[in-house]
Design goal:
Among the domains are: 1-59, no CATH class; 162-281, no CATH class; 358-501, no CATH class. The protein has helices at 10-25, 34-41, 59-70, 96-106, 122-129, 141-154, 162-183, 194-203, 206-220, 226-238, 264-284, 304-310, 330-340, 349-355, 364-376, 383-399, 403-406, 408-426, 456-466; strands at residues 2-3, 45-49, 55-57, 112-115, 133-138, 294-298, 316-320, 435-441, 443-445, 452-454, 469-478, 493-501. It is of the alpha/beta class. The longest helix has 22 residues, at 162-183.
Amino acid sequence: MEWVDYPMFEYEKALGAREVTSLQGSLSSGGEGSEDLLIARATFLRAVGGKAGGVLPTTQSKIEESHRELRKRRTKRQSTRFLVHGLHEYKGKFNPQMARSLINVVDPTATSLIDPFCGSGTSLIEGLRLGLHVGGVDKNPLAAWMAQVKLRTLRASGDVSLGLRFGQVVDQVTDRMRGALGRGAVVTPPHVTSDDDAYLRHWFPEPVLAGLWAALDVADEEPDDVCADVVRLTVSNIVRSVSWQLPEDLRVRRRPATWTPPDVVEVFSKAAGGNALALQEVGLASSIDRSLSSVVLHGSSQSDDVLRAVATEGRRLVLTSPPYATALPYIDTDRLSLVLLGLAQAHEIKVLERELTGSREWTAKVHREWDSARSVNRDDLPAEVLTLIRRIAAFNARDDAGFRRAAVPSLLYRYFSDMGRTLTAMGTVLRPGERAIMVVGSNRTGRGESQVAISTPELVGAVAEDRGYVLNEIISLETWPRYGMHAANAVNEERAVVLTRKDEQLSA
């Protein structure tokens, strides 16, 4: 066996070794056929010894090598945007190698994967590539749509004409965009409300908005075409860079009035060129088994009915990366795409942000309700969570904390209550003995001597034990250091909380 030739984190080396052991142990034939299984599924092996001598490259190494070759990259670095993973940026996106490896390590015999916080679909994509039925849920309409499009595009694997067809559609789009810019006036589609039209005109220079509507108009002419879907993804992926929104700020913040808008056709063309290469990769990849199902719903991970709707028969595995406590502002970050694509109306943005698990946004009334719930432990959270929350509240009282820090204890209580409800809902689709993996990161609150670490993985594990699960282990997973304006609040280590559904009824 040969390991990948790019530098690996220590956790990747450990997961790689466990993958080999787990995959070989999953064979009922006592190890016979392990070479084929490792070639098909291993994440961190570059090649495996063949039965007739020599070595054969693994499927994953060939995919990553194809990604680099198409882009003429000679550096040996891990590729995380291979196939459909890089079609659209998404804050907090799961590392695809991590997702693939965890499936192999924790339950290589699973036939169905469920992700209650699927985001842009990373775990679902890797599950489908490994031959699993996949089902995902997300409360963010853009994330759910993005995951649907990526899975649909992945299902076109083996269609060698895909990249060429996309290029032809892109030519139509750029011609239509230039025509719209030449006319000057913005032609708003008839389905757009007057309020949404005013909102978009406030956030986009008129020539830019005219070009974006023209691009979407071409995509709407072929609503069921994968290439049209990828055009929409491409438009969504550039909206922040061509808008009045300050792109490096995740919150709502306007650029200075001196900003000069870029040529929207050039920006789109460059982004489309990258996605054309991705579709070439998809076309060269092995076909996906058409018998496998893939379902993504916009909905709540706390709903039993929603999770049942995305679950298929067979042995089930949950793999998810939930939002952290006091999470990233996903809706604010994506608000322009949501309104432009018709996935939400402008007046719904604040409500959507408040509804996300881990959100820091709420009304004064909701704040009071959660203060009351925390004071009596209404949701029966475990002692470990309550001890942390009381400690933070005590520091805040001592330091006369401002309103944002003062809200943290009740925000945390709401977060762990929401996680408890998700774990309970997961228990309605997981049978006794089936596994769940929740990848979460720790964070912190407070300043100076009053700073308190929030060990989210251990606390989620404690909540899970109270909701009918056995906590098997917590696997440390390093992440790349973050830079930029949000680096001070970044999480540089994640951990995988591995659970098993108990053979007993879940507590309420």
